[in-house]
């Protein structure tokens, strides 16, 4: 890090999500291609079914399978993670849930199926606002695939493929249409100043306890490296890499 790296995040607010014949973004609305999940299923031998549900703020009194992750829809426009320009959708959050055919919810260590309004503490870091629209990608794994490490990985992979089609549309938007622009710089203190390092310990015990680093897209999965495969060794991230979604929690 040379201290001059800058990250620009341009936000595009979305206040409507619906299904359509193709995926596109228009006038603060995101439209998702109907049956997009059918194309994804063809290549995933461990996945039995995928359901995409649009959960609006007034619809939180519904049952959901164990929540594996909340993440935003963001895309790298130029540069690599931690620098350059990222486009981000606000007003919409993706919720990833999963189970398998023997009724085993995916996420044994953080097992939390139930009524959405009762199991999510909204308006906190890492959770949606109570005004956000939630895109729920619910993945059904084949029999007894909920526990082996390959099962949760398949759930995250199929969600990433679905969201990529939305990312591609986001990337094509006119930058002048963004609602907010934020610029972040990695700053190096002079040698006579105190250095501050934040240490974040993440789990890497296998199966559900895994985390991915440096995916191709912000908050993505594909292209990332498992901390288990890296031997759970320490990895240094710049503040902007962390801010730009270089770490994907899979628990």
What does the model show?
The chain is α+β, with helices and mostly antiparallel strands and 251 residues long. The protein has one domain (6-188). The chain is 15% helix and 33% strand. It has four helices and 16 strands. The chain has helices at residues 36-41, 116-119, 150-171, 239-243; strands spanning 6-13, 16-20, 24-26, 29-33, 47-55, 63-64, 67-71, 74-78, 84-90, 92-100, 114-115, 133-141, 180-185, 211-213, 225-226, 247-249. The strands form five sheets. It has a four-stranded mixed sheet, covered by helices on one side. Strand 8 (74-78) and strand 9 form a beta hairpin. The radius of gyration is 18 Å and the shape is globular. Pfam families: Gly_reductase. This is Proline reductase cluster protein PrdD. It comes from Clostridium moutaii. InterPro entries: D_pro_red_PrdD (IPR031000), Gly_reductase_pB_sua/b (IPR015417).
């Amino acid at each position: 890090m040379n201290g001059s790296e800058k990250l620009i995040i341009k936000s595009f607010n979305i206040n409507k999500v619906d299904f359509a014949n193709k995926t596109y973004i228009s006038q603060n609305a995101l439209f998702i291609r109907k049956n997009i999940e059918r194309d994804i299923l063809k290549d995933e031998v461990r996945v039995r079914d995928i359901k995409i549900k649009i959960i609006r703020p007034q619809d939180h009194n519904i049952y959901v399978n164990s929540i594996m992750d909340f993440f935003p829809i963001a895309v790298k426009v130029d540069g690599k993670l931690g620098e350059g320009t990222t486009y981000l959708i606000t007003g919409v959050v993706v919720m990833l849930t999963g189970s398998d055919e023997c009724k085993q919810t995916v996420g044994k260590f953080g097992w939390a199926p139930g009524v959405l309004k009762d199991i999510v503490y909204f308006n906190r870091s890492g959770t949606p606002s109570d005004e956000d629209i939630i895109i729920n990608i619910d993945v059904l794994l084949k029999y007894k695939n909920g526990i082996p490490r390959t099962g949760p990985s398949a759930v995250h992979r199929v969600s990433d493929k679905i969201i990529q089609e939305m990312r591609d549309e986001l990337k094509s938007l006119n930058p002048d249409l963004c609602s907010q622009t934020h610029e972040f710089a990695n700053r190096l203190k002079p040698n006579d100043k105190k250095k501050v390092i934040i240490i974040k310990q993440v789990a890497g015990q296998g199966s559900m306890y895994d985390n991915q680093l440096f995916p191709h897209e912000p908050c993505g999965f594909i292209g990332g490296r498992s901390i288990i495969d890296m031997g759970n060794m320490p990895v240094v991230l710049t503040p902007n890499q962390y801010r730009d979604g270089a770490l994907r929690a899979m628990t």
